[in-house]
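Wed. Picked up where I left off yesterday with Dehydratase. The coffee machine is broken again, so keeping this brief.
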Amino acid sequence: MRVFVTGGTGHSGSYIVPELIAAGHEVTGLARSDQAAAALSAIGAKVHRGDLTDLPGLTAAASQFDGVVHVAHRQDLLFSGGIDAVAAAEVPIVLAYGEPLAGTGKPLVVAGSIGSPGQETLGRPATEQDPALEVRDEHRGTLHARNIVETTAIGLAERGVRSSVVRIANIAHSTTDRAGFLPTLIALAKEKGFAGYPGDGANLWNAVHIRDAASLFRLALEKGPAGRYWHAVNDEGITFREISEAIGARLGCPR
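Structure written out below (tokens, as returned):
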């Protein structure tokens, strides 16, 4: 399969691309810089120069491939407009892929979050049958999807796209992660001289090695039916205290 991947040089993408290539797929990654292009070439992918802001360019690119894996996002908007601005920018991006894929049955796999079902699952584990949570916008008085990227991708199944969402665990770890939750906690412990946790540290976190998540992206691309959510989770209930104790033990600092 000829696959177009966005975010191929990020933490998730840098594992997804080799996973796809090892399975025999021909992968082309979106690159907006010479550095990104070199990184994609180094792991065996072809390069398509472009940018997430170029919606017609994304549509044209998607039309040339047998499937799309989208794990990139407009990180540049995070500090100025927060997650709402990032999500708002993602919707037209997903729809740009959907335009050439409509009616073809070709796959579109989009990265989501394990937290998207939200408080609707309070008291029980979230399942792959739980849709993204919808909440009321207090300021505008209208219903909107907190996870509009997920619902937009899933909605494309009604237009003949084999679309699905891989919800990544809260902690997606590997030795190459430099900006995730765990590296942040480790850096904080080094700065403060101890590995702390909130309250009694009993609140639970879920985790997955990003290599396992990459395998799930591949399987969703190859075999996943339209309109499905998939949960990339291995460890389902790690307490914050256990995480802090592990960090403290490794760093040799109090916890």
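Quick read: Helices lie at 13-22, 34-42, 55-62, 78-101, 148-155, 181-192, 210-223, 240-251.
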